[in-house]
Fold this sequence. Notes:
InterPro entries: DNA/RNA_pol_sf, RT_dom
Pfam family, one: RVT_1
Number of helices: 19
Domain Reverse transcriptase: 88-338
Mean pLDDT: 89
Largest sheet: 5 strands, mixed
Oligomer: single chain
Protein name: Reverse transcriptase domain-containing protein
Region (Disordered): 22-42
Shape: globular
Distance between the termini: 56 Å
Low-confidence stretches: 479-484
Structural class: alpha+beta
Radius of gyration: 25 Å
Helix content: 40-55%
Amino acid sequence: MRDEKANIFNDFFASIFLSRDRNNHPSSEPPLHPRGGTPRPSVSEELVRELLEVLDVFKSAGLHDLHPRVLRELAEAIAGPLAQFYEHSWCSGVVPEDWRRASAVPIFKKGRKEDPGNYRPVSLTSILGKLSERIILMHIHEGPAGKVMLGGNQHGFIRGRSCQTNLVTFYDQVAKSLDAGVAVDVVFLDFQKAFDTVSHPVLIKKLGDCGVDTYRVKWVANWLEGHTQRVVVEESFSTWRDVGSGVPQGLVLGPTLFNIFISDWDKGVKSTLLKFPDDTKMWGDVGTLERRNRLQSDLDRLQGWVDENRMGFNTNKCKVMHLGRKNQQHTYRLGNSLLVSAEAEKDLGVIIDAKMNVGWQCGDAVRKANRTLSCIHRCISSRSKEVILPLYAALVRPQLEYCVQFWAPHFKRDVDNMERVQRRATRMIRGQQGRPYEERLRDLNLFSLHKRRLRGDLVACYKLVRGDQQALGESVSPSTTKSD
Length: 484
């Protein structure tokens, strides 16, 4: 029964992939020999030793049951041979077959659990293979391709950027237009199985176009070619299936390769666009017919890119939100479909409404946190602080603080409702019932949620002014930054 379930998952995941024939693109084949002047890559023993010594010993043993603790303890002895092996693989452009195999674990997203379409495959691969990916990744980031990703509007899988920086940038720019009395239309775009439908030949061509040298391009091409996976469900395995397209999720190289693949998506687009990593929103001032037509032209341009790169939109999740009092509520088209207008939309896990207020998000966060807290109350018999506090910190409080520097509550009722969750959690602990909230916080070594948000605001501000987000901070207008 479990084997059958695993095969059902794998059959579904395989049905999403592009076929090898459809994936064929002769012009994208990497050259057989390196270009003149391309330096021969080298992998130092010191680098491999450093990577082995920082392996997380609490991670799984990987596809071949080779535990990371073993590799970490033997780092001094095996670093030299591994460095030679990695260098030979890199120079020859040949990846061992075992490094191209993956055990995919279905991770539930949302919706009906009986529907395999509501699961995301996350790959478990060889640890030694992941180390080779990390070496390749380091060199890609140091080259021209790294500058391509850092210079764009991508906020996913890039150091110093996050969901929060994406949302803050969006809010700041839209607020400027709304404060000036200009109507704004925001289009939320969603790919159909984006990571699974990346065309390998198109990706390889883009790697070369953005400056990745031939050695790395050949290695990545061989790594993607012949990739196979099986699905693991409750210690049962499906049969092996070819992976005809996509960048496997859960691997080291996957996110960077996807970012490179869509780095040229907004080429020629005149409206403002932000990505994380495939979740995209595009907006523009639409006070005149000319500007509304420009936004429609940009949608047509994006649709053309999607068709050319063999991707697809999930039109059911693509929406438009009309902001501003004088908005004409224009109807937009995406391909052959009309975009549905939405009064509120969940963007990167945060609810944004047409009035740009945070009340819906506050209410949603409080409801989720209270549900989780109720589940802990019902299922956990212990009331000691050693049990309740870690559960609260790991499962409840993050729901109240996710990207909260973007949507922190303004109204007293929202502030009180959020604080009430922590009040309730501290009362669950043995010996804390009947004591004032401030005493409970001191005894449990906790801060109020309000103070935690204030500290988070200061940390976020420091990163924008002095930290690794200075480039983003320069574009944020002080006049539209929220103050508490």
